[in-house]
Amino acid sequence: MITGPARVFDDEQSALKAILDGKIVAGDVMVLRYLGPKGGPGMPEMLAPTGALIGAGLGESVGLITDGRFSGGTWGMVVGHVAPEAAAGGTIAFVNEGDSITIDAHALKLELNVPEAEIAKRREGWKAPAPRYTRGVQAKFAFNASSASSGAVLDKF
């Protein structure tokens, strides 16, 4: 189990840079968002950040939550495939830097320790970010992809 302050990143590159620059410390809970089927688009694999955490000796002391995906090469206190994703207005979009987050794998619990009224307030002011791609196959995928909880497929539309 880990409870710690959220370290929030809206892309994989800035999260990786923070790890490599020593800005992530034991007890932090990294939140990598806007990396789901629509936001990524396509749910990029988050092996680089988890590998960097392990290489920095933080694999067992830092949590990582993402709406991106993991392969079988990832281990540690990580939660992936979060749905609904940030780009669709899921709760992960409303996590702020420093918020307290608990990951308890034994209790199957993932909790943003912020009052519901505060989350509702954040939700009211939220606007979906501009898509990363506006043309081509990635733009089409982002526009048409279903939620990760439905397989991130295109044939539902």
Task: Write a structural description.
- This protein is of the alpha/beta class and 157 residues long.
- It has 4 helices and 6 strands, in the order βαβαββββαα.
- Helix 1 runs parallel beside helix 2.
- The longest helix has 9 residues, at 12-20.
- The radius of gyration is 15 Å and the shape is globular.
- The termini are far apart.
- The mean pLDDT is 94.
- The CATH architecture is 3-Layer(bba) Sandwich
Characterize the biggest β-sheet: 6 strands, mixed
Instruction: Evaluate the radius of gyration.
Output: 15 Å
Number of strands: 6
* Shape summary: globular
Q: At the first level of CATH, what is the class?
A: Alpha Beta
Q: What is the SS-derived class?
A: alpha/beta
> How many helices in DSSP terms?
4
Mean pLDDT: 94
Care to give the gist of this entry?
The chain has 157 residues and is α/β, with parallel strands linked by helices. It is 23% helix and 17% strand. The protein is built from four helices and six strands, in the order βαβαββββαα.
Task: Walk me through the topology.
Layout: E1 2-9, H1 12-20, E2 29-32, H2 47-55, E3 63-66, E4 78-79, E5 100-104, E6 109-112, H3 116-124, H4 136-144
Parallel strand pairs: 1-2, 2-3, 3-4
Antiparallel strand pairs: 1-5, 5-6
Helix pairs in contact: 1-2
